[in-house]
Amino acid sequence: MMISSDPSRRNSFQRRIEDGDIVIVYERHDSMKSVKVKGGSCFQNRYGAFKHSDWIGKPFGSKVFNRKGGFVHLLFPTPELWTLVLSHRTQILYLADISLVIFYLEIVPGCVVLESGTGSGSLTTSLARAVAPSGHVYTFDFHEQRSALARDDFNTNGLGGYITVSVRDVQGEGFPDEFLGAVDSVFLDLPQPWLAMPSAARMLKQDGIICSFSPCIEQVQRSCETLRQNFSDVRTFEVLLRTYEIREGRRGAKRNGGPAAQKLNNKRPQLSSEIECEGEESTYVMITPCSETRGHTGYLTFARLISECNQV
């Protein structure tokens, strides 16, 4: 469980894996999977079979082996890892965008947050952890089946107590009146977010903040026009994240070489720490950009509600 209402289990990375827990089976940074532990079951991957019964009782973070010598790591299902393994029912927000959203929406424990739409629940899980243990996230999606699947995921991960999932067309109906003036932050991920912005303004407390995620700049332009009616400090960001792969290699023993080897060695001056002795092997570290760098995902537009006394 990511977060539990039981204080003895809440956010505990030290506790041991139990039957029924969700674990992240980690092979490498681009190969991991969520698995529900069940005694008698078996997990299969390219390294062979791993019995769930061997996992029970081990602490999260353990490196476990199978009979063939293959191994995986059993990690705690944090929101960051869950974002990387969840089922994509819709396009999701990833870690860089999520981090900026939580930072600029000023979300802290105890906040009340409205979200529309829920989608696959990637952002929702991180919002829930940010508001816990005394806050709450109310998330809305017009698609009933998608909402039900997201609700199941949240309950499975131990987040059900911090998230309320509802089926509602916020673009057409707005947010429920029960939230009038009671919300700290609003997040919109909608095709026409400007239709929901007047309703969002009524839900926010004084000095509350809204964020709208849109993949197209035309949506951003329309949203900014609407926001300026009730909001100030309107700003838009595009987060581009570039990751690098770090690998260790090994050079073979040097030989007393001819012209080709001498030419290679003379291409650049060697620092004292780089000089290799003849007849010895050496290691080196190679750092290269990942071949599949994720580019544009969307634009994040933030704005702060204008207090009534400052409105003209």
UniProtKB/TrEMBL annotation:
A GO CC annotation given for this chain: tRNA (m1A) methyltransferase complex
Biological process terms in GO annotation: tRNA methylation
Region (Disordered): 251-272
Pfam families in the record: GCD14
Reaction catalysis annotation: adenosine(58) in tRNA + S-adenosyl-L-methionine = N(1)-methyladenosine(58) in tRNA + S-adenosyl-L-homocysteine + H(+)
Origin: domain of life: Eukaryota
SUPFAM superfamilies from the UniProt entry: S-adenosyl-L-methionine-dependent methyltransferases
Gene3D superfamilies given in the database record: 3.10.330.20, Vaccinia Virus protein VP39
Family under the similarity heading: Belongs to the class I-like SAM-binding methyltransferase superfamily. TRM61 family.
Protein name per UniProt: tRNA (adenine(58)-N(1))-methyltransferase
